[in-house]
Amino acid sequence: MVLMAFTQTLHLLRPSKCPGFAYAWLEIVSHRVFIGRMLAITPQQKGWSMYSMLLADLFKFLAPFLRNAELAKPLTMLYKGTLRVLLVLLHDFPEFLCEYHYGFCDVIPPNCIQMRNLILSAFPRNMRLPDPFTPNLKVDMLPEITVSPKIHTTVANLIQPQDFKKNLDSYLKNRTPVTFLSDMRTYLQQVSSEPGMRYNMSVMNALVLYVGMQAIAQIHSKGLTPSMSTIAHSAHMDIFQNLGVDLDTEGKDYLPQFVLFSRYLFLNAIANQLRYPNSHTHYFSCTLLHLFAEANTEAIQEQITRVLLERLIVNRPHPWGLLITFIELIKNPSFKFWSHEFVKCAPEIEKLFESVARSCMVQKVSGGREGEA
């Protein structure tokens, strides 16, 4: 009860309501005693949901400034403090970040790559990550690949309006109504005067994860595991391929120093599931590679590469699933990665790709509890 009272008080005094109290608020929320009480000492993880709400309050306050790259010195200090809190959580409470990653990534702007990587790099402490740089690593043979991760969000409830959810379920079951694929983009759009918010990122994230979870369940019900062959030719892949093609540059919003495409948001939603070894990571890794292989234009392949590359060129840590996906993309000759025009469009771009590829081949895995310094 005492912790609940503290949480409710801090929620009422959150930075968006009391910006002048933001530094002191963060100092309280990040204090070792408070974090310990919320995440370690309180039994049955009863403090986890309360602490996740406070972190979401912090992310929501920073989001408009980060989205528009408007960080004055006071906000820069608050942002750095937020990264330090995430580093502490990554090191001491990785399971908390694992289970609440979806809600956090849902409110973090797409251009906050480092912040999102810190969250997505978390993995359970009782797990030993396979080295993604092992030659001929058979990801589909790992026992963890069949295990579904815990997610403390009811994704189905986030797909709104209700008729969209109803039509989605109907299409996944029997591919009707036939107009569903052409109507999807309309459901994903929203009326907003705020730059970069033409498309509802929350609904996009929920749609991608929900469709993926349904696909995994269907594949497992047949006694199979996700692979490049088992994920193809399904209603689920129809939806993803349609989004990849239909969400094109017509849906772009111009932001200072950052251009958001609706397709970019869709690919980001997929990349947000590339984490530690689990069924979601495996399925969405296969999905991203399948979309690359089956793309009807090089623009889609270039954007998939961008989503992966921009998450790799920032400082460590890098999520395990991100590394195995990019390594497979550049090493597997069936994808013909090095023959694409966007790789050779300029000498400096080609050198960048070669540098990242070289580092991927020689570095050792940076797990969720390495690279904090």
UniProtKB/TrEMBL annotation:
<dbReference type="InterPro" id="IPR007196">
    <property type="entry name" value="CCR4-Not_Not1_C"/>
</dbReference>
<dbReference type="GO" id="GO:0017148">
    <property type="term" value="P:negative regulation of translation"/>
</dbReference>
<feature type="domain" description="CCR4-Not complex component Not1 C-terminal">
    <location>
        <begin position="2"/>
        <end position="357"/>
    </location>
</feature>
<dbReference type="GO" id="GO:0000932">
    <property type="term" value="C:P-body"/>
</dbReference>
<protein>
    <submittedName>
        <fullName>CCR4-NOT transcription complex subunit 1</fullName>
    </submittedName>
</protein>
<dbReference type="InterPro" id="IPR040398">
    <property type="entry name" value="Not1"/>
</dbReference>
<dbReference type="GO" id="GO:0000288">
    <property type="term" value="P:nuclear-transcribed mRNA catabolic process, deadenylation-dependent decay"/>
</dbReference>
<dbReference type="GO" id="GO:0030015">
    <property type="term" value="C:CCR4-NOT core complex"/>
</dbReference>
<dbReference type="Pfam" id="PF04054">
    <property type="entry name" value="Not1"/>
</dbReference>
<dbReference type="GO" id="GO:0060090">
    <property type="term" value="F:molecular adaptor activity"/>
</dbReference>
